[in-house]
Every structure is written in C-alpha cells, then in structure tokens.
Write a structure and sequence with these properties.
With about 280 residues, this protein is α/β, with parallel strands linked by helices. It has 2 domains: about 180 residues, 3-Layer(aba) Sandwich (Rossmann fold), CATH 3.40.50; about 55 residues. It contains 11 helices and 7 strands. It has a 7-stranded mixed sheet with strand order 2-1-4-5-6-3-7. Strand 5, helix 5 and strand 6 form a beta-alpha-beta unit. Helix 9 packs across helix 11. The longest helix has 15 residues. It is elongated and about 90 Å long.
C-alpha cells in the first residue's frame, strides 16, 4: 500500500472516531440547565427545586442585595459576580435559585446554568456556548471550595476575569461556599507558616475570592429567626397549629439536630406538614 493511500485511510479512521460537532443548545426548552461533560451538553431542567423568595426569612439584606444585582444584570446593566458564604443550611443555594425564579418572571430570557465544581476545567467550553446565545445567564456553582493541591481554581479565573476574551457580557457567576476565602483557614495558616515566602504562598488562591464583587455573608440564626421561618412556612400553606405546641415541638426538633438553621426549620416544617396531612407542591 502506498504512503498516500495509508495516510488517506488513517485520516478517514480519525474522522470516524472524532466526536460530532456540538449542537447548539435549545435555550428555549427550559428556564434552567445543568452542564454535563463527556459528552458536553446542557441538560434542560423541567422543574427547578426551589422555594418562593418570600419564604426565605432571616436573610433580608443578602436577599435584597442579590435581587437588585440580578435585576440589573437581567436588564442589561453592569452587575457583579457574587460569593454567598457562611453557615451551613442558611439558604445560600436556595437564595440563588429563588432569586433567579423571581427575576426570570419579568425577564424570561434570564437562564440559570448549574456547573459542578469538578467540571470547572470545562468552563471555557461552556462559556463558548453561552457567549453566542441570545439569552443572559446566571452561572451557578454550589458548595465551592479548594484544597491546597487543587488546580481547579485556575479554571474559575476564566469566569471571573475572562482571560484575553473577557467574561461574556451575558454571563454572571454566583457561587456558594462555607468558606469566605474558598479554602480552610487552617490550610491558609499552615501554608503561610511553612512557605519560604509566606505572603505569596496562598495569595493566589485567597485572592480568588477578591474577584467576586459581592460578598454576602450568612450567619447562624437566632431562635426567634428559626421560629419565624417555621411560622412563615405554616402561613404559606394555611397550616394553623396551636402556637404553644408548635413552639415546643420546634425547639425540641432543633435540640435533637444540635443547632438551628433554615434547613432545620424546613425539615421540621416538612415533618409537621406530613403529620397534618398537608401536601407541599
């Protein structure tokens, strides 16, 4: 077989092995999407798992700030990337989804796209899809954090800084984390104390959080806030248990869980609604 024929056969085989070009996503199929890799695709979400914005109590300042920021972005005005950080179970991810739902009611071209932390290296390919789309996107990464040998944070800079192309004007990035600096405090201190140049050892990773224009802190709730959350859930479905009994059961519930949070309040309310035969849609 001649060399030319052999090269032709190799080229044909490589073409058969190569994946088909990515299809342009149908962004009219849903209000929210989840990004998957292997193969790359944006999977539409038929129904987003979220609560209504008025039900998120005890986080008024963060709620109002994120709503205003998202409304400006949806209307085409400048807005900031946002890092929602702090106590577990206080509604960080719930707030992102609820804010999107509230704003998208007036701006249907605002889409929510969830990106898993482990898929951050593929974010450049995702941005290529979003950059040319006729919609605006809230790119959402839940429970974001990094370890000392984790290189995923370099991919995140493509979203926050955008590199030579710049972040697409139609994309904004919201992330949640239990850590304000996206890495454990003891890891920061350990690297500073053992590094030859302590000031540079963790600066690159710690400064990543500085690239978010908005820092929204979430702190453990008080007992009054915890009870107010439960009262709000009950009012929303028309559930009217005896106030004294409700208070005693709610306090006992949080005591068995070892703490109070919005998540614990919702779990108690779910149990309460089930016991009273109330369906939650």
């Amino acid at each position: 077989m001649s060399g030319k024929k052999l090269l032709t056969r190799i080229a044909a085989a490589l073409e058969r092995m190569a994946p088909a070009p990515d299809r342009a996503p149908d962004f009219g199929a849903a209000a929210a999407f989840v990004w998957h890799v292997g193969p790359d695709r944006l999977e539409p979400v038929a129904r987003v798992n979220r609560v209504d914005l008025p039900l998120l109590l005890g986080i008024d300042r963060s709620r109002d700030t994120l709503v205003d920021n998202t409304r400006r972005f949806a209307a085409g005005y400048p807005a900031n990337n946002a890092l929602l950080w702090g106590a577990r179970g206080m509604g960080k991810s719930s707030l992102v989804k609820a804010v999107h739902g509230a704003v998208a009611a007036d701006h249907p071209d605002l889409k929510l796209v969830e990106l898993q932390r482990e898929d951050l290296p593929s974010v450049g390919r995702l941005l290529n899809h979003l950059r040319v789309a006729p919609c605006r996107f809230v790119l959402f990464c839940d429970d974001l954090s990094f370890s000392h040998d984790d290189q995923h944070y370099k991919s995140l800079k493509a979203v926050l800084d955008g590199g030579i192309e710049g972040r697409p004007d139609n994309v904004i990035f919201y992330a949640t984390s239990n850590r304000r600096h996206l890495m454990p405090r003891d890891m920061i201190e350990n690297e500073r104390s053992s590094a030859i140049n302590p000031s540079e050892a963790v600066e690159e990773k710690v400064s990543l959080s500085d690239r978010f224009g908005l820092w929204l802190g979430f702190h453990p709730c008080t007992q009054d806030q915890y009870l107010a959350m439960i009262d709000g859930y009950c009012a929303a479905v028309g559930l009217t248990p005896d106030p004294a009994t409700l208070r005693a059961e709610a306090i006992e519930w949080q005591a068995t869980r070892g703490g109070r949070s919005g998540r614990v309040a919702w779990q108690f309310f779910t149990d309460l609604a089930g016991r009273h035969g109330v369906r939650l849609d």
